[in-house]
Amino acid sequence: MRTAIHFCMLAGALAGLLFGASAGLQAQPDAVHDRPLDASNAWPEGHFGTDYNALDANGFRHGTWIRVYADGSLYYTGSFHHGQPAGSWWFFREDGTAISHVTHDPDSPQSSTAVLYHPNGRVVAHGGYLHPAVRLGPDVIDAEIDMSPARHGTWTLFTPTGELASTLTYSEGVKHGPVTHFLKDGRTAESGSYFQGERDGEWNAYHDNGSLRQTITYRKGTLDGPFRACYNHGQRLSEGAYLDGVEHGSWKFYHKDGELQHIVRYSEGSMLETIYVNGTFTDWHGEERPAYERSYREKVLEGPFREWHDQGEFVLESFNDPETGEMLQRRVMVGTALRREGEYVNGKLDGPVYHYDTQGLLVKTEHFDNGTLVRTEPR
């Protein structure tokens, strides 16, 4: 248990910032700032109350001050200027490893730059703070006062192994401005901007190979505006728009070769219709029971089709994993039965169309020629 209030409140304020970061860019160089001060050699020289932890003539802290944990290990060492934190401050864990190094601006002591460290000594974040205006006397230990600093300006986050993870921008403790998250190879994983703590404007996300994955638009934290998604080779996958957080207007979906697949029309989040354009599509009875499968070419029915009776259910099936030999279970649909099947040519039935009962037995065969029924053969 600490015996003093950490007036910078660095550990709590930054825990989420440090260890919630995703992996990112190239490793940091093995520089001096990657070998921080250790508590064992950070103790000030001289006598307590005289050379450090002393007060000025008005009873405010002045000069070097330290605080310790309950076991006597060093918690922080830093300087006050007539009650105001100033200069360089180091904070340590109970095992002696550095938590952070805070340096106050000599011309504006309420502003500081901070470097935060992983227990392995690597830098995990650095950025700026705004501190509350305080003048501290010797008895602040028990004072109920919030002295947490607010992140301000650009913060840079690293992984525990030294790779760049993210850059974020803050204004008085609130995300405000550009943010970028990075892939392991150094390319951008996601980028966008915040406005007073909420996503705003265009946000882009990227595949692991660096190509654009999606572009999405926000207005003060709400999805509003154009949307676009892409395959990992760069071709568009879908495009549409949001209005006040829901889909609105026409949404288009594409095959990997860029050919238009289908269109879904929305009105303020409600789906109005689906227009099939190119490809094979399946519709369903209830819980994933197939209803029909049809193919289209430029919005016209073309090729084989199948239709099913509204029957069937999922059951658990046991099987052996071919790699591990372990007995596993999976859900499979059983009890389905074809209702009819045949073929369309240029949007019209052509050739034989077979009809089946719910047991899968052939009931009749109809013969079509360019959409016209020619004859019917009973079973």
Summary tags:
single chain, 379 residues, mainly beta, 2 domains, 21-stranded antiparallel β-sheet, nine-stranded antiparallel β-sheet, 32 strands, disordered N terminus
SSE layout and pairing:
Layout: H1 10-19, E1 54-55, E2 61-68, E3 74-81, E4 84-92, E5 98-105, E6 108-117, E7 123-130, E8 150-158, E9 164-171, E10 174-175, E11 177-182, E12 188-195, E13 198-199, E14 201-206, E15 212-219, E16 222-230, E17 236-243, E18 246-247, E19 249-254, E20 260-267, E21 270-276, E22 279-285, E23 289-297, E24 300-301, E25 303-308, E26 313-320, E27 327-334, E28 338-345, E29 348-349, E30 351-356, E31 362-369, E32 372-378
Antiparallel strand pairs: 1-2, 2-3, 3-4, 4-5, 5-6, 6-7, 7-8, 8-9, 9-10, 9-11, 11-12, 12-13, 12-14, 14-15, 15-16, 16-17, 17-18, 17-19, 19-20, 20-21, 22-23, 23-24, 23-25, 25-28, 26-27, 28-29, 28-30, 30-31, 31-32
